[in-house]
Design a protein that fits this description.
The strands form 2 sheets. Strands 1, 2, 3, 4, 5, 6, 7 and 12 form an 8-stranded mixed β-sheet that branches. This protein has 2 domains: about 200 residues, 2-Layer Sandwich (Ribosomal Protein S5, domain 2); about 170 residues, GHMP kinase, C-terminal domain (Alpha-Beta Plaits, 2-Layer Sandwich), CATH 3.30.70. With about 375 residues, the chain is an alpha+beta fold. The structure holds alpha-D-galactopyranose (GLA). Alpha-D-galactopyranose binds next to helix 5. Alpha-D-galactopyranose (GLA) binds next to helix 5.
């Protein structure tokens, strides 16, 4: 992609880029909707992501283009506006620019900017976090600002929360920034504290992207966020992560039925993150697989962020040979299921799952085998 983005940059802007950066997409391995509840998560940076290239301009004009068939966007350095419709993709880099400037850092005035991606859109693999982080790296490089990885995560999340307007946690940005090949990223979101957990050898990840997306997905995500904060308040804690399953069993009757279901998912999920981390360290992949599927069942029954398509994939994958476990990955309400398998799970095994899905829904899911990858980086030439 390094050569490809340089070439595309030249073709688009008739000049050489000065800075190039890459940021990976991510799998949410375990820890569903735990991040903004002060909990823990496990994720993996993957070998697909977003590349961006930038060259500075002297005239204060900001030209932003992508290879994704979306409109080229022109913005002015003296007026930070938000775009809507097909041009709204530019809000991710522009939001990062606003976050950098808002934190007192220098930002480039004018520039040509190009983004390229090999992440399937709408699969819940976090193309938005990837473009935010890659953009943050080239913007900081263009003004010689040294920004720590933790700060990049914070600024990218800030852009998403305040400029784009999605009340997400820091799972996506944290995993994309701290990814490590053959490892999962562990985040204690309260600190936040970032670490890695080695992946036992022979583990494979597969993604089944349904291409379905609930029409109200952003609104539903925000609604779950609100329900969780309301549940925490009703339980008298700052974060749902402050409640253990034992305490929750005693107090759940004091809050409404819906709040109790949402809270139960989060409280149990945080325990599953701990158990999965221990299982990975012990190499007990069967146990980790059962936790993955249990996480999905909890989404299905308590958090209600699954769909018939995602449930069908998990139901079909669960008994399949060489599959340890499967669950929806990301916010839910459509998107993709990830499966953790042994190396013996093959393309033909994946095709059988896809064929069963096709018989049921008359549409075929995209199937991807993913490798883990390192986190976001500026590419030196
Ligand atoms: C999306 C959000 C994350 C996280 C997940 C659910 O990916 O961007 O912050 O909340 O959903 O775990």
């Amino acid at each position: 992609m390094n050569a490809a983005i340089r070439q595309k940059f030249r073709a688009t802007f008739s000049r050489e880029p000065e800075f190039v950066a890459r940021a990976p997409g991510r799998i949410e391995f375990m820890g569903n909707h735990t991040d903004y509840n002060g909990g823990t998560v496990l994720g993996a940076a993957i070998d697909r992501g977003v590349w961006v290239a930038l060259a500075r301009r002297e005239d204060g004009v900001r030209e932003l283009a992508t290879d994704q068939g979306r409109p080229r966007v022109t913005a002015r350095a003296n007026r930070l506006e938000k775009f809507s419709g097909p041009s709204s993709w530019a809000n991710y880099p522009l939001g990062v620019l606003a976050a950098l400037a808002g934190s007192g850092r220098r930002v480039p005035a004018g520039f040509d900017f190009l983004a390229m991606s090999d992440l399937p859109a709408g699969a819940g693999l976090s193309s938005s976090a990837a473009i935010e982080l890659a953009a943050a790296l080239v913007f900081a490089a263009a003004t010689d600002e040294r920004v720590e990885r933790e700060t990049l995560v914070k600024l990218a999340r800030h852009a998403e929360n305040n400029f784009v307007g999605v009340p997400c946690g820091l799972l996506d940005q944290g995993v994309s920034a701290f990814g490590k090949k053959e490892h999962l990223v562990f985040i204690d979101c309260r600190g936040p504290r970032f670490g890695t957990v080695p992946l036992p050898s022979g583990v494979n990840f597969w993604i089944f992207n349904t291409h379905t997306k609930h029409a109200l997905v952003d609104g539903l995500y925000a609604a779950r966020h609100r329900e969780c904060l309301t549940a925490a308040q009703a339980l008298g804690v700052e974060w749902l992560a402050d409640v253990s399953p034992g305490q929750f069993a005693l107090v759940q009757k004091n809050i409404g039925a819906v709040a109790a279901k949402r809270a139960r998912h989060v409280v149990d999920e945080i325990v599953r993150v701990g158990s999965a981390t221990a299982g990975l360290r012990a190499g007990d992949l069967a146990a980790v697989g059962r936790l993955l599927t249990a996480s999905h069942r909890s989404s299905q029954n308590f958090f209600e962020n699954s769909t018939a398509e995602l449930d069908f994939l998990v139901d079909t994958l669960e008994p399949a040979e060489h599959v340890f476990g499967a669950r929806l990955t990301g916010g839910g309400f459509g998107g993709a299921v990830m499966a953790m398998t042994s190396g013996s799970f093959s393309e033909s095994g994946a095709r059988e799952i896809a064929a069963a899905y096709e018989r049921k829904f008359a549409a075929s899911p995209d199937v991807l085998r993913l490798q883990t990858a390192d986190g976001a980086e500026l590419i030196r030439t």
